[in-house]
């Protein structure tokens, strides 16, 4: 029996953005648990580690000097300053994953998304997560107990500006229910993986079909 042809696919970059507290990190965790062919892009950051976070898993925690060196050497695909801390995505691991057909999930803000759009538009799938209401957003920030009241206030003040960037994203999800939102993101992921331009092995596959394999 002839061996079946397999269509080689280029990986994609799935970006989830939202104002703090809208639920993108919860959605991201569920996507990673559900789909084995997508991996989290581990960003570098100068901020302090939060309870429950692990270095090299959630982020690579580095100081400002190392961050500046990486940025100056062109080793970051995108970088941004958020609430007096710096974040960035190492370029090389992402490039290697996409070439191998592995999808990469990004939990980044609109600034980072703009940079990815400029550098890798055809690989990018962008999703913006909105809260169902301002009251819900504030309640989520308070109940997660990761930030001081002053930081919560700063995040709420910045939320309006962050939400104004929704037109820059290809897909919009209002996160009323976590399960529903996860299902919607998975649907987007499935459709984007089937786009003809990402199926770099399609011509060879069709050639095999036409030759009777």
Descriptive report:
The chain is an alpha/beta fold and 213 residues long. The protein has a domain of 138 residues: Rossmann fold (3-Layer(aba) Sandwich). 42% of the residues lie in helices and 20% in strands. Strand 5 and strand 6 form a beta hairpin. Helix 1 packs across helix 7. The protein is globular, with a radius of gyration of 19 Å.
Key terms:
4-stranded mixed beta sheet; 9 strands; 20% strand; 5-stranded parallel beta sheet
Helix-and-strand structural type = alpha/beta
Q: Find the CATH topology of the domain at 13-41 and 102-210.
A: Rossmann fold
Secondary structure: helix percent: 40-55%
Report the sheet with the most strands, covering strand number, pairing sense and barrel closure.
Answer: 5 strands, parallel
Radius of gyration: 19 Å
Distance between the termini: 9 Å
* CATH class annotation of the domain at 13-41 and 102-210: Alpha Beta
Can you list the strand order of the major beta sheet? 2-7-1-8-9
Number of strands: 9
Q: Give the amount of beta strand, in percent.
A: 15-25%
Write the layout of secondary structure elements.
Blueprint: E1 13-17, H1 24-34, E2 38-40, E3 43-45, E4 59-61, H2 64-72, E5 76-82, E6 85-90, H3 91-99, E7 103-107, H4 110-120, E8 124-130, H5 134-143, H6 149-163, E9 171-174, H7 178-193, H8 202-210
Parallel strand pairs: 1-7, 1-8, 2-7, 3-4, 8-9
Antiparallel strand pairs: 3-6, 5-6
